[in-house]
Amino acid sequence: MRKVGDMASNRTLARIAGLLYLVVGVGGGFGEYVRSSVRVAGDAAATAANVAGHVSLLRIGFVTDLVDFVCFLGVGLVLYRLLRSVDPGVAVAMLVINAVSVGIQALNMLNQVAALLVATQPGYTAGMSHEATQGLVLLLMDMQHQGYVIAQIFFGLYLLPLGYLVYRSHMFPRALGVLLAIGCGGYIAGVAADYLSPTFDSTLAVYFGILGGLAELAFLLWLLVFGTRKQTQGRHAASEMKGELA
Q1: CA–CA separation, 19 vs 229, rounded Å?
Q2: What is the DSSP letter of 6?
Q3: Is the distance from CB of 94 to CB of 165 less than 8 angstroms?
Q4: Among the four residues 4, 39, 106, 159, which has the most C-beta atoms within 10 Å?
């Protein structure tokens, strides 16, 4: 049986999740900045020159992304621990979708490594013309971009069960749960906008992505600043104790 006093650990778990989420936001934002700064859509020569000229930046971005992927998986694990008593099945669904997103994003980084190798190691392009090499670099960077877009499907869907758990938990304002569900819709709409666009790269998707990002930012700030709601911890603890005694 869990003691009522143990619920103070929920606030610690929430703040750990918030700190990990902060690393994800900063690291992911930097990684996206690196990718967008070197990739010039439709311009193979410029993209190849940028990749060859910013090798160190791309390597730092690569490592930063790997760190934020691990932290995002950590966010899922900590939130699962925090919210599993609300609805174990939904909590598992949240964790699985989170893990799928991490797996896709991590494997997708191979495209960035391949672009670096092609741009900087002549042995990989022996017998290829300079123009063909440039085109291959652009293709690999485009593939990384598209892989990131595909990962957004699961990155967005993860917010739906999370929003439900937050809404039902009594540990957070219910408005946060609603906002996270709306953020899910924003990410999914962004993916749809990209793939309904003739160029597979819609500017409208950026605005949908901002909607999802703002929802996550609001949740992140609440985790860091407040943890969980003081006035409802006792009620949540009582419901847990009742469930364990049943």
Answers
A1: 17
A2: G
A3: yes
A4: 159
Q: Report residue 164 as tokens.
A: 């439900």
Q: Are 47 and 141 in contact (CB under 8 A)?
A: yes
Q: Which residues lie closer than 8 Å to 222 by C-beta, 6 or more apart?
A: 18, 172, 173, 176
Q: Count the neighbouring beta carbons within 10 Å of the beta carbon of residue 180.
A: 25
Find out whether 105 and 151 touch, Cβ atoms under 8 Å.
Answer: yes
Q: pLDDT tens digits for the chain (246 residues)? A: 444 444 558 889 999 999 999 999 999 999 999 998 999 988 999 999 999 999 999 999 999 999 999 999 999 999 999 999 999 999 999 999 999 999 999 999 999 999 999 999 988 888 889 899 999 999 999 999 999 999 999 999 999 999 999 999 989 999 999 999 999 999 999 999 999 988 888 888 888 989 899 999 999 999 999 888 765 444 444 444 444 444
C-alpha distances (whole Å) from 81 to each of 39, 85, 173, 217 are 39, 8, 19, 21
| Structure-token pair, residue 233 | 């911890």
